[in-house]
Structure formats: C-alpha cells, structure tokens
Amino acid sequence: MSRARVAAIALLAATASSCSSSFGMPSGASEQGQDIFNLWQVFFWAAIVVAAVVYGLLGWSLLRYRRRRAEPDALGRQFREHIPLEIVYTAIPVVIVIGLFAASISTGDTVGDVTPNPDVVLHAEAFSWGWRFSFPNEGVIVLSDPSGEGVPGPVVKLPVGETVRVELTSNDVIHAFWVPEFLFKRDAIPGRTNIFDVTPTTPGTYHGVCSEYCGLNHAYMTFTVEVVPAQEFRSWLTQQPSESTA
Questions:
Q1: For the domain that residue 60 is a member of, what is the CATH number?
Q2: Which residue(s) pair with 155 in the sheet?
Q3: Which of 87, 112, 137 is the endpoint of a domain?
C-alpha cells in the first residue's frame, strides 16, 4: 500500500472519529463522568477552532504567496512589526488558556464535591492483590478470592440514580480504584481514606481495575460493578454475607 493511501486512510479515520458527538470518548456512566466528558468536549471544540484557524492561515499563505515568476512582488508587502496584530494573537491564546483552566477548576470542584447525605456508603479496601468491599450501614461484605490468572474479581452492585459514598483506602501499598466507563479514578493510599461520591446513571455491567502498578498480581486485581435498579440492589444486599460471618 502506498504512503499516500496510508495517509489518506489515517486522515479519514481521524476525521470520522472527530465527527462523532463524543469525539471518540465514552460519555460516562455516572454523573461525575458526564461532567468530565462535558469538559472533554469543551477542550476538543477549543482545539478544533484553534486548528481550523492555524491550518486555514497556513493554507491561505501557501496559496496566496506561492511562487509566481511573472509577479516579482508575489511575496507581498514586507514589514517588521504590526503591534495591534501581535497583541491580538498573543491575547487570544491567553484568554483561551484562562478559560480552559477555569473550566477545569470548576469541573474538578464539582466532581470532587461530596453530598452530606449519600444514599449508600461503600467502603473499599485495596490489598495485594484484591478488594474488600463492605456496606457498613447494612453490615454486608464482598471479598476477593485469592488473585490469579482466570480468577474473577468480586462483584459489587450499585443502585442507578443514587449517590454512593466511596471510602477508599489500602492496607499495604498504593493501589487505585478505576472504573473506565465511569471516567473516574482515585488512588488508594495506605494510612489515608480517600472519600468521593459516585452517582451511576446507566444500568449495566462495568469492569473495574487497580490502575496503579502494585506488584506481581497487579493485572489480576479486578472487580465488577453492576448498576441495577434500587429495588434489585437492596434485594441483592440481603443475600450477601454479613461482616460478622465473613
């Protein structure tokens, strides 16, 4: 396959992905993930506008000032400075950066905000190499089996549309709680409790992993989150072993 054809295919693929409303990124299966997705869209649109201006000016310059033997002044009028133009092309990027920074801070505050009255409290304790999930208000615990190739991680159900307070910690080394479809990741640090809220919005089954390299069986330190209706979630809780019997 020729280089020109490869380049054309790559350009077509990039264009197709950018034309989708999600710009190649999942929209998030939680309220917090949707906030992050909205910020991603703002950044992507800003990048598209900047790219359009830059490539548009490059294209115009290439066409307007291409070499012409019959026109000795084809390069246009030369000048050393243009203060108003310089101010404009300096100020515009500064304004864009300030706007994106402000949007990032606002989204970070929104995503990191915790409600005083969560619907569900989930304690997540990471260890090498597994998870100990518990619902302290209900006295329920979900524990990993010994990790290894082919051993499935624990399954935790969460109610759709309800705010889940996650209290995340580790009892040995640094791990991380990551559900890719939630667009949400937090570190589990020994001696500290990382508290955050997750509000699932879309029923389904989501794969979770430890995304901080933590040793030999790191790749097998997985878990599954099933987002279900609230009634099914509470029915599931009644079928789980209590902390006193675990």
A1: 1.10.287
A2: 224
A3: 112
Alpha-carbon torsion (31, 36, 37, 38), positive or negative: positive
Q: Report the number of distinct structural domains present in the chain.
A: 2
Whether residue 28 is found in the same domain as residue 106: yes
Please answer whether residues 37 and 28 qualify as being in contact, where contact means their C-beta atoms are separated by less than 8 angstroms.
Answer: yes
**218 and 134 belong to one structural domain:** yes
Q: What is the CATH number of the domain that holds 128?
A: 2.60.40.420
Question: 139 — phi, psi (to 5°)?
Answer: 70, 30
193 close to 163: Cβ distance less than 8 angstroms: no
Q: What pTM was computed for the model?
A: 0.75
- Summarised one tens digit per residue, pLDDT across range 37-95 is 999 999 999 999 999 999 999 998 888 777 666 666 656 677 777 888 889 989 999 99
**In contact, 173 and 190? CB cutoff 8 Å:** yes
User: Within this chain, do residues 56 and 13 fall inside the same structural domain, yes or no?
Assistant: yes
Backbone φ/ψ region at 120: left (φ over 0), alpha (ψ -120 to 50), beta: beta
CA atoms within 13 A on the CB side of 34: 8
Token pair for residue 2?
């020729």
Q: Tell me how far apart the alpha carbons of residues 226 and 235 are, in angstroms, rounded to a whole number.
A: 14
Q: What's the CA gap between 83 and 76, in Å, rounded? A: 19
Distance of CA 16 to the CA centre of its chain: 21
User: 232 with 125, same domain?
Assistant: yes
Q: What range does the domain containing 194 cover? A: 120-238
